[in-house]
Design a protein that fits this description.
The chain has a two-stranded antiparallel sheet. It is 28% helix and 18% strand. A hairpin with a 2-residue loop joins β3 and β4 (60-63). The chain contains 2 helices and 4 strands. With 90 residues, the chain is of the alpha+beta class. The protein has one domain: D-amino Acid Aminotransferase, Chain A, domain 2 (Alpha-Beta Barrel), CATH 3.20.10.
């Protein structure tokens, strides 16, 4: 696949639910919920799948470590769009 295909959010939602069996809920995330997150990533036309390392805001300072879920999502996405994926343990 090349650029210009459907929106990345829908693509990643379908990868997560179909390939990985992940429950996906699309909704606004409130700043107070960030403390409960273990890992986080962004997606978009240029970002594709980009891990979030840190958020500094009025309600707190949060650090995240890209974990297994984030790694699987960016590897699955890269495979789907034809990018070379490095072998990983797991």
């Amino acid at each position: 696949m090349t650029g210009g295909f459907r929106d990345r959010r829908a693509l990643l939602r379908d990868l997560g639910t179909g390939l990985r069996g992940i429950k996906v809920v699309e909704r606004a995330i409130m700043p107070q919920e960030l403390a409960k997150a273990d890992e986080m990533f962004l997606t978009g036309s240029a970002a594709e799948v980009t891990p979030v390392g840190e958020i500094i805001g009025e309600v707190g300072h949060y650090r995240f470590t890209p974990g297994a879920l984030c790694r699987l999502m960016w590897e699955d996405f890269d495979r789907l769009v034809g990018k070379q994926v490095a072998a990983t343990a797991g």
